[in-house]
UniProtKB/TrEMBL annotation:
<dbReference type="GO" id="GO:0016791">
    <property type="term" value="F:phosphatase activity"/>
</dbReference>
<dbReference type="InterPro" id="IPR036412">
    <property type="entry name" value="HAD-like_sf"/>
</dbReference>
<dbReference type="InterPro" id="IPR041492">
    <property type="entry name" value="HAD_2"/>
</dbReference>
<dbReference type="InterPro" id="IPR006439">
    <property type="entry name" value="HAD-SF_hydro_IA"/>
</dbReference>
<dbReference type="Pfam" id="PF13419">
    <property type="entry name" value="HAD_2"/>
</dbReference>
<protein>
    <recommendedName>
        <fullName>FCP1 homology domain-containing protein</fullName>
    </recommendedName>
</protein>
<dbReference type="InterPro" id="IPR023198">
    <property type="entry name" value="PGP-like_dom2"/>
</dbReference>
<dbReference type="InterPro" id="IPR023214">
    <property type="entry name" value="HAD_sf"/>
</dbReference>
Length: 236
């Protein structure tokens, strides 16, 4: 899997950090605060995944997603205000709740010791990445985004979010390497599809919040592992 690879690209949410369930809680709190409606967490995640995929060509898919929630649940504030409130609710979770997946930091160190370049390739915002680095001790005591990754590509660096391959094609261009020299680590169906669309090998790592798509993820990924411990064994 890692043989002859010059670059390994890591997705962030659901892959390196255990955050997908947190965003379900954030959206549930947002919906309840602005409408009084209580919505199940599984329903929220599937709705968010569908809408972000539908809005992927828009300049700000997350703003459009907040506009969708406004229309669906009858929020009074504008979609811009809804988005601001969403990130206001998220700050406690970003700073104090979200943590790395078990042994993620050990894989990062093992790959660096092998001389493999690492990239953080996510379509979350730079704001979130910086917040994890600056404020979240569960994360920043184990890894440094700035020091451990040769490049960080976020939502601000692309016009199209996953499953569009842009973020991965940008990584190849930055390092001036071919697709065969790269491996991508993803957890979600849209992430695996983005890797497929870029023509890059992808290993899918299990995440409980992608379980409803696991059959498709396994079918489309080149490799599948249950956890980072499995990947560490392959590096060593």
């Amino acid at each position: 899997m890692f043989k002859d690879k010059k670059l390994v690209c890591f997705d962030l949410d659901g892959t390196l950090i255990d955050s997908v369930g947190i965003w379900n809680q954030v959206d549930a709190a947002l919906i309840q605060e602005l409408s009084g409606i209580v919505v199940g967490l599984d329903q929220i995640q599937q709705l968010r995944d569908l809408q972000l995929k539908a809005f992927r060509h828009m300049p700000d898919p997350y703003l459009e997603y907040c506009g969708y929630l406004k229309d669906l649940y009858g929020f009074k504030p504008s979609k811009e205000e809804v988005k601001n409130r969403r990130y206001g609710i998220s700050r406690h979770f970003l700073d104090h709740v979200i943590e790395l997946k078990p042994q993620a930091e050990l894989l990062i160190q093992a790959l660096k010791q092998q001389g493999i370049q690492l990239a953080l390739t996510t379509t979350t915002s730079l704001f979130n990445v910086q917040r994890y680095q600056d404020n979240n001790q569960k994360i920043n005591q184990k890894i440094s985004f700035d020091n451990d990754f040769a490049i960080i590509l976020t939502r601000e660096n692309v016009e199209n979010i996953k499953p569009h391959p842009e973020v991965y094609l940008n990584a190849l261009q930055h390092f001036e390497i071919e697709a065969k020299d790269c491996l991508i680590v993803e957890d979600s169906l849209i992430g695996v599809e983005a890797a497929n669309n870029a023509g890059i090998d992808v290993v899918a790592i299990y995440d409980q919040y992608s379980a409803h798509e696991m059959d498709l993820i396994k079918a489309k990924a080149d490799y599948f592992v249950e956890d980072f411990a499995g990947l560490i064994k392959l590096v060593n």
